[in-house]
Design brief:
The chain has a single domain, classed as MetI-like (MetI-like fold), CATH 1.10.3720. Helices cover about 75% and strands about 0% of the residues. The protein contains 13 helices and no strands. The protein is globular. It starts with a helix and ends in a 5-residue tail after the last helix.
């Protein structure tokens, strides 16, 4: 009993260390973004200057467009594919799932050179399309894998009952399966969106101007982190994290439900 009490008594200290380790860099990031190096006071000058910067607004909109469009396309294709694999009598369906998982582990750097040559030849280099295409394609396998797990959680008896009532295949999918899949879609969408939002390798290789660059590339192009630019550098990082934080907060309940319901054991 005494040993157990000592274990419990010592836990708050370790929890505090863990929280400090994780939150410390974020607190420093926020502090420097609000600091005026010259006066030493806290103000929002760094944020105001960034929001007035046309280049920053352009790369932010580029990131939003590329991440949103690629996530939508990936989820649309993944939903159809996962439905076909799990609900239809497709031969080697389980093998296809493992193949998709293996493809998702393929290093993106290995496909960089051929994609670069293709986009250069067809005139798509330095365009948003040159980012949307690879983001969609390479996020598709993991999206199919995840959504297949959620589809397996839905009893097939629901479809059989709907067919007996005369429902068409589209009606069954849209009216019955899709509402039950919302939590899984939210979880998968956030994973894909965050991955695409933070992607760096393709963006730095396929874009050369701020007209098509995304936020990670814009931040990497800052001059050396001197006192003159560190405020705007940290402020741009904070602003770049805001969309991700808002999405996670907005879909928090669906994320938790999706993570728990997606634990499939066959």
């Amino acid at each position: 009993m005494k040993t157990r009490f000592n274990e419990i008594k010592g836990r708050p200290f370790y929890i505090f260390l863990l929280v400090a380790w994780c939150a410390g860099p974020l607190i420093l990031l926020l502090f420097y973004s609000l600091s005026d190096i010259n006066s030493g006071y806290i103000d929002f000058k760094n944020y105001v200057n960034l929001l007035k910067d046309e280049n920053f607004r352009t790369v932010m909109s580029n990131s939003l467009i590329v991440s949103t469009v690629s996530t939508f396309l990936s989820l649309s294709l993944a939903t159809i594919s996962a439905y076909a694999i799990t609900r239809k009598s497709i031969r080697f369906g389980q093998a296809a799932l493992f193949l998709f998982l293996a493809i998702s582990m393929f290093p993106s750097i290995a496909t960089l050179s051929p994609l670069y040559l293709i986009f250069r030849e067809v005139g798509l280099r330095d365009t948003l399309i040159s980012l949307i295409i690879p983001y969609t394609v390479f996020s598709l396998p993991i999206a199919i894998w995840m959504l297949s797990g959620y589809f397996k959680q839905i009893p097939k008896e629901l479809e059989l009952s709907a067919k007996m009532d005369g429902c068409s295949g589209f009606t069954i999918f849209w009216k019955i399966l899709f509402p039950l899949l919302k939590s899984g879609l939210a979880t998968t969408a956030i994973l894909v969106f965050v991955t695409n939002w933070n992607e760096f390798i393709y963006a730095v290789a396929f874009t050369t101007t701020n007209l098509s660059r995304t936020l990670p590339i814009y931040i990497s192009k800052f001059p050396t982190a001197t006192d003159n630019v560190i405020g705007q550098l940290t402020a741009s990082s904070v602003i770049g994290a805001i969309p991700l934080i808002l999405i996670i907060l907005f879909f928090q309940k669906r994320i938790v439900a999706g993570l728990t319901s997606g634990a499939v054991k066959e």
